[in-house]
Amino acid sequence: MKAQIITIGEEILIGQIVDTNSAWIAENLNLLGISVDKIISISDKKEQIISTLQQTNQEADLVIITGGLGPTNDDITKQTLAEYFESEMVLSEEVLGDVKKIIGARGSQMLDLNVNQAMVPKNCKVLRNPKGTAPGMWFEKNNTVFISLPGVPFEMKAILQEEGFFEIQKKFKTPHILHKTIHTTGIPESQLAHILSDWENNLHKNINLAYLPSPGDIKLRLDILGENREEIEDILNKEIEKLFKIIPENIFGYNQDTLEGVVGELLLLNQLTLSTAESCTGGKIASLITSISGSSRYFKGSVVAYSNEVKNKILGVKEADLEEFGAVSEQVARQMAEGVRKLLNTDIGIATTGVAGPTGGTKDKPVGTVWIAVALKEQTFAIKYIFGNARNRNIIHSATSALNFLRNLLTKI
Predict the structure, then answer these.
(1) What rounded mean pLDDT belongs to the chain?
(2) Which of 376, 370, 372 is nearest to 409 (CA)?
């Protein structure tokens, strides 16, 4: 079956707001085995709405519409839908009760505009809104289902999650579809594709693979469709097992996992504390770590040692080594990690020092050169990377590489 999404509102077309509704709806329909083949954004003009409804009525089995259901006079979607579906407007006592309850909870008085929210086309099925005053509406015409929803994201989601998706599944018999997102780091996309070429070419015929690259994290999304859930789940898991054998040190998580979250779980599991000494990353590692709720249980703090003076006086890096080897060196990275571990009395210290760019590089240490060190109580490990010449990407790559370096060490404890 085919589904389409229509978003209504000038604010989307002029770039005033970003359409996040369509992405969320498409993702969740896909989880139900329903593919979206078109997303359309249109103005809230009557002629535009009607012509788009006519077009989608010929092309799709399911059409989900968001926007234009507010209480003010410029919101004309509901009246336009009534005209298109040849229906008169009637007062829904059920919706009116919901509106009164919500308005009362806000401590406000009912206005005529609020009462108007309870007016709906007579031939629609009302989808109740537990979070707002504008109800969802379900129409059917020429074997196509149309669902109109408010544009406010949390209201739209609540209607679909509590009633809409259930009704869609009742109406349409859909196959099972499973998704698994594998998070990888430490290998550029082109190199990763080369390494995985044999695995990719031999994937089960029912599996679709997509590469979703972002700085520091390349996601591999596997989708499989089938009538037997247990069967396709087994196929999917076997392919992921093969993948893990190829790049075991570069896979850090699945689906909603984050690298900083996985590292935090490992630190908690091993009852270890962490501190960071950051030069080229400027606090990015600490920012990622502390983005996780509860990270105070294992993270003590950070020293942003951008200057040689701070490296020397605060972290105890030898001045002679700074002069002989330079700030961007294995020797300095090791001493920074050991220094912050002792300074903040933690079990582990991470350090980064490098040339983030776009200036500052030399022949021996080009832009993108980064040394990362991890100091444990018994031993200090260091690794060198050479990234590109884009400053922001280098900072992200350095931070994620440092966390993955630590993750791999923690998995071997």
Answers:
(1) 94
(2) 376
How far is Cα 227 from Cα 354, in angstroms, rounded to an integer?
Answer: 52
- Residue 77 CB coordination number (10 Å): 24
Q: Is 362 helix (H, G, I), strand (E, B) or coil?
A: coil
CA distance 367 to 382: 19
pLDDT attached to residue 394: 95
Q: What residue spans in the chain does CATH classification 3.30.70.2860 cover? A: 176-254
Summarize the confidence of residues 184-210 as an average pLDDT.
95
Residue limits of CATH 3.40.980.10 in the chain: 2-171
The Cα-based distances of 389 to 121, 253, 285 in angstroms read 59, 28, 20
CATH superfamily of 259-410: CinA-like (3.90.950.20)
CATH of 176-254, one of 3.40.220.10, 3.20.20.480, 3.40.50.11540, 3.30.70.2860: 3.30.70.2860
SS3 label, residue 134: coil
Q: How many helices (H) and strands (E) does the chain have?
A: 17, 17
Q: Is the pTM of this model over 0.85?
A: no
Q: Dump strand ranges (E) for 201-310.
A: 207-214, 217-226, 251-254, 274-278, 299-304
How far apart CA 174 and CA 4 sit, in angstroms, is 16
Q: 5: which strand partners?
A: 39, 64
d(CA 281, CA 354): 8
pLDDT, tens only, 325-371: 999 999 999 999 999 999 999 999 999 999 999 999 999 999 999 99
What is the amino acid identity at position 73? N
pLDDT tens digits, 35-57: 899 999 999 999 999 999 999 99
Summarised one tens digit per residue, pLDDT across range 83-115 is 999 999 999 999 999 889 888 887 887 788 788
Does position 142 have pLDDT exceeding 90, yes or no? Answer: yes
Q: Which fold has domain 2-171?
A: Molybdenum Cofactor Biosythetic Enzyme; Chain A (3.40.980)
Per-residue confidence (pLDDT) for residue 115, from 0 to 100: 85
